[in-house]
Specification:
The chain is an alpha+beta fold and 311 residues long. It is 33% helix and 19% strand. The chain has 11 helices and 13 strands. The chain has a 6-stranded mixed beta sheet with strand order 6-5-7-8-9-10. Strands 1-2-3-4 form a 4-stranded antiparallel beta sheet, with no helix packed on it. It has a 3-stranded antiparallel beta sheet with strand order 11-12-13. The radius of gyration is 20 Å and the shape is globular. The protein binds zinc ion. Zinc ion binds at residues 260, 262-263, 265, 270, 281, 283-284.
């Protein structure tokens, strides 16, 4: 039943500002009148979204909703992306906004599978803490559901150290404008700047009195992320390459397979990702940059950061 990704399908996604690289990253495959895609490496069930956003149903689980489903995290790298962005996570209104953010160079984004859920699930706060999130960014739909969603999220985070920043999308109320539309209007290269320039509010929950405070123009994208990328490449990747002698990147950013250093590997089952700067092993899973830095005993991120930040 699934269909090949033909130029016709690529064109349909290009109309939404999504490139072939993004289609490949999220594993979007045409199926019927929509797209099928994985949600997490540990979850076999797939998600399906109708191409026409007015269609009913708009979303489906194939074959059905798994019990263990949490945040949308198609490659399992969400924690690394959050760390790389200095503790910032974008909680988008749906999977399509996560695709748009990725296209715009913002990989530290996820969504709930209920979209702008009415009820915040019990695992929500513990999972955010496990992801080391410090600041949650949201750009809700411009309707009462969107606004209520932000308030519900802020309420659930009231007793944590996690801040909630809400960005007001530049579309008229009830217009259905979302991050995807901003991507199409501004272009991928300008999406970060466009988001940065939106009016931003800090949403603080106090019992019986929700407070929404406008912030001065923020600088959401500090050079923290660049610094982390520099450490990942120059310190960790360089040491890993010297130690394990893997090949350069292929078209998707992976080395040729080599013997996994994290388990007793008889056949080469690990690949180096030049994009996330970590080891993907078919047998034992993903090993992130920090874990590798520890294994190779190179300069740790905290120390690298402290040295660079010193005057
Ligand atoms: Zn392994």
């Amino acid at each position: 039943m699934s269909t090949a990704i033909t130029p016709f399908w690529i064109e349909r996604l290009a109309a939404r500002g999504l490139s072939e690289g993004t289609i490949a990253h999220f594993g979007l495959t045409p199926r019927g009148e929509g797209w099928q895609y994985p949600v997490h490496p540990a979850i076999e069930a797939m998600r399906w979204k109708a191409f026409d956003s007015r269609a009913t149903p708009k979303y489906l689980w194939l074959p059905n909703k798994p019990d263990a489903v949490r945040f949308y995290d198609c490659d399992g790298w969400l924690h690394d992306s959050v760390t790389g962005a200095g503790g910032v996570l974008w909680l988008a209104s749906g999977e399509a906004d996560v695709w748009a953010l990725w296209e715009g160079g913002i990989p530290n984004a996820t969504s709930l599978f209920d979209g702008e859920a009415r009820k915040i699930p019990a695992w929500f706060v513990p999972r955010l803490e496990a992801l080391d999130v410090q600041t949650l960014h949201m750009a809700p739909d411009r309707d009462p559901t969107g606004r209520q969603f932000v308030l519900n999220v802020a309420r659930s985070l009231a007793n944590t150290g996690i801040r909630v920043l809400m960005h007001r999308l530049p579309f008229p109320p009830r217009s259905k404008g979302d991050i995807g539309r901003l991507l199409v209007e501004m272009g991928a290269a300008n999406l970060q700047t466009a988001l940065n320039e939106l009016r931003t509010y800090e949403v603080v929950f106090e019992p019986f009195r929700e407070r929404v405070r406008q912030l001065p123009l923020p600088n959401l994208f500090s050079n923290h992320r660049e610094l982390y990328e520099q450490w990942s490449v120059e310190v960790v990747e360089a040491a890993a390459q010297m130690t394990w002698d893997f090949s350069g990147p292929d078209r998707k950013g992976f080395s040729k397979n080599f013997r996994c250093p994290f388990h007793d590997d008889r056949h080469p089952s690990a690949g180096w990702s030049y994009r996330s700067h970590g080891v993907h092993c078919f047998a034992c899973g993903y090993h992130g940059t920090k874990e590798i830095a520890e294994m190779l005993a190179v300069l740790p991120w905290e120390q690298f950061k402290a040295e660079r930040a010193a005057p």
